[in-house]
Amino acid sequence: MSNSTASKATAKMHFMLKSTPPRTTFHQDMTGEERDVMLKHIAYWTEKQNQGIALVFGPVLNPSAPHGLAIIEVENEAQVPKLVEEDPAVMAGIMITEFYPMKAVLPKQHA
């Protein structure tokens, strides 16, 4: 692997974020206030997707353990807690988000 290829491969880090709602029925019985916060949450992650940070995000419809999932790409690990803390759903205390480093396998970029 050439030095330029190696640096491209290690330039970005990937993390899996898992957001847990306050109850398993949350997507069915949100209050109006919770719904407003969740709309801000979606707008926040949509903006992060537009910036190239969130590669994919959305709800996981597991009936016994529903949660949100995001795969993000960042320059360094220090960015991740800030991204989580600034999520409107986390700020409002609706979601608890944990994150883990991920060895992502991405599609090859064609020149």
From TrEMBL:
- List, alphabetically, the SUPFAM superfamilies matched: Dimeric alpha+beta barrel (SSF54909)
Q: Give the span(s) annotated as Disordered.
A: 1-29
Which residue range or ranges hold the YCII-related domain? 29-96
Q: Which InterPro entries match?
A: Dimeric_a/b-barrel (IPR011008), YCII (IPR005545)
Q: Name one Pfam family in it.
A: YCII
Domain of life of the organism encoding this protein: Bacteria
Entry similarity comment:
Belongs to the YciI family.
Q: What is this protein called?
A: YCII-related domain-containing protein
